[in-house]
Amino acid sequence: MLLTLPQLPAHLHQGLEPLYILHGDEPLLEQEALDAIRAHARGLGFTEREAFVAAARQFDWSAIVAACASQSLFAERKIVEVRLPTGKPGKEGEQVFVRLAQQAAQVRQDGGALPDTLLLILLPRADRTMQQSAWFTALERAGAVLRIDPVARADMPAWLAQRLKAQGQSVAAGDEGLQTLSFFADCVEGNLMAAHQEVQKLALLYPPGALTREQIEASVLNVARYSLSDLSRACLLGQSVRSQRILEGLLAEGEAPVRLHSTLAGDVLSLYHLRCALDEGMPLPQALRQARVWGPKEKLFERVAPRLRRPALSRLVQSAHVVDGINKGLPHPLWPHDPHGALQRLVMQICRAMQV
After folding, report:
1. Which residue of 134, 184, 203, 207 lies most exposed, with the fewest beta carbons within 10 A?
2. Which residues does UniProt call coiled coil (predicted)?
């Protein structure tokens, strides 16, 4: 069974599975989902808890088997939590997970009675390889998989508004409020834990009711945290202002110009190879595979590739080559001599090309 965060409350109201897999890279949302499952389980008599972190290479997997098999001394039921930071249980761990999945499947077949043990498995974001592994599919069939997606930038204003509402606060109605929430989102983008803390701070500083933009500006720190994928996506969408802001944020965080250039140049080269394949009559799906484009970027490339032309992409390839030389200490007479300025110009050129 596959679940998303919005589906979790209704799911718990209907009943409790014998095991849950939580996977994702957003600690705040994972913790909130975990707290919700624990609270619901405690209400059903799961008052004892054992936790394991399977991080060491010589981890004793038999301890988890014993914990799931033994009867609680002080309560009728208990929760067993297993955190796997690497997402790789190894051969012994895989065998243990399959065995525990078989036990959970048997509980399901016994008419839906509550199990003596509730198993919670915490993983990093599960990629395709992990999801297709025998141990993961066995667990999925025996329980529920909760995918914890990060809050996208476009959804951040609504997420912030919901959190403010929960503590009795709001922003002005109409465009003014939307602008305030957008400002708030810009300040905390990519750092959901900081966003949560800033919302809580507003509850301490101001009474319930409407907040002004001035109040939020005075309280909220600029705690945005960006990733290389954020920069790539913003450039491919032609978002000039946001791309420059992300570039500045990454440089301020100490990201190496070489890595930033590698991401941008990789996108440019992939677009060029994709365009060449399309010009030769290759179908778009096959062209995307040949250009080594997959995952989240696939839809972005599908969106921009049909309207891009090879001469424009050739110029971008040449610009990326120039910036590569500047990063290596080889200045160009028509370009800024510092990597920072060169990256700014490359980002601007990519965004302009995507806007055609």
Report:
1. 207
2. none
